[in-house]
Amino acid sequence: MSDKPAYKRVLLKLSGEALAGKDGYGINTQTIAEIAEDVKEAFELGVEIGIVIGGGNIFRGVAASAKGMDRSSSDYMGMLATCINALALQDSLEKIGIKTRVQTAIKMEQIAEPYIRRKAVRHLEKGRVVIFGAGTGNPYFTTDTAASLRAMEINADVILKATKVDGVYDKDPELHKDAIMFSDITYLDVLQKKLQVMDSTAVSLSMDNKLPIVTFNLGVRGNIRRVLMGDKIGTRIHK
After folding, report:
1. Nearest-angstrom CA–CA distance, 188 and 138
2. Could you give the dihedral angle defined by the CA atoms of residues 11, 12, 13 and 16, in that order, rounded to the nearest 10 degrees?
3. What is the pLDDT of residue 2?
4. CB-based contacts of 138, cutoff 8 Å, min separation 6
5. Is 128 contained in some domain?
6. CATH code of the domain containing 20
7. Which of 66, 81, 103, 203 is in Cβ range 3.0-4.6 Å of 55 for a Cys bridge?
8. 1 pLDDT more than 90
């Protein structure tokens, strides 16, 4: 096994729920501190890291629209929730000595930079972790799609999709004990089998641009570093 990272620049996709830890809602400070430590371990390998973060621990637009709220309004509220998470993660990373920038797709200059692709790339080159908030800035698009979009814009080598389970299974492993995990799977299989890894728009976007996705369990400390070092964990989705 190589002693050098397998990737130079990555896009890490974190769900909002990951920040809630065992609380299930809001931001668990211990959990976010542990995630920050894992990101620091990965960053110290010399890898350039961009992060897209969800907002489901605070507000989920799709769920609100299902209960009668206007979809566009509820999606914008979800985008603002991602910005709260981005600032929380920034705080945790800065406390342990990692320089960061938050860029948001919705302008809010008092707390974050507006998203500018060239500026984001420059930050990465200068050794800063860039956290992208507010999704794509458009309703009807998920933060998974935002992750695919940002990964391609910054020329990332891979999307690292951090989840609550070890990888991609043929059915929900939390409900079915006989669920089988794939170590490798194609984009088309993910779409055809309707496997709930990322939404279909995000997977299609990655497929069209030949951008691999590695999905793995964030709950195991050190897993981000292991993926970067090319360890065989999680599921690799590729052509």
Report:
1. 26
2. -140
3. 59
4. 105
5. yes
6. 3.40.1160.10
7. 81
8. no
Q: Could you tell me if residue 200 is inside a domain?
A: yes
Cβ(203)–Cβ(197) below 8 Å: yes
Q: Is residue 60 part of a domain?
A: no
Question: What pairs with residue 173 in β-bridges?
Answer: none
Give the whole-angstrom CA distance, residue 58 versus residue 67.
Answer: 16
DSSP 185: E
Whether the model clears a pTM of 0.90, i.e. scores above it, the answer is: yes
Which of 37 and 174 is assigned the larger pLDDT? 37
Number of domains in the chain: 1
Q: Which domain holds residue 14?
A: 9-54+80-133+142-238
User: Which string of b and e fits 115-138 if b means at least 16 CB within 10 Å?
Assistant: beeeebbebbeeebbbbbbbbbbe
Residue 194, domain member (yes or no)? yes
Using the structure block, give the residue that is written with the tokens 């981005």: 86
* Cβ neighbours around 103 below 10 Å, total: 21
Give burial (CB, 10 Å; 0-12/13-18/19+) of 201: middle
Query: What's the confidence (pLDDT) of residue 172?
Result: 84
Both tokens of 57, joined, read 């621990």
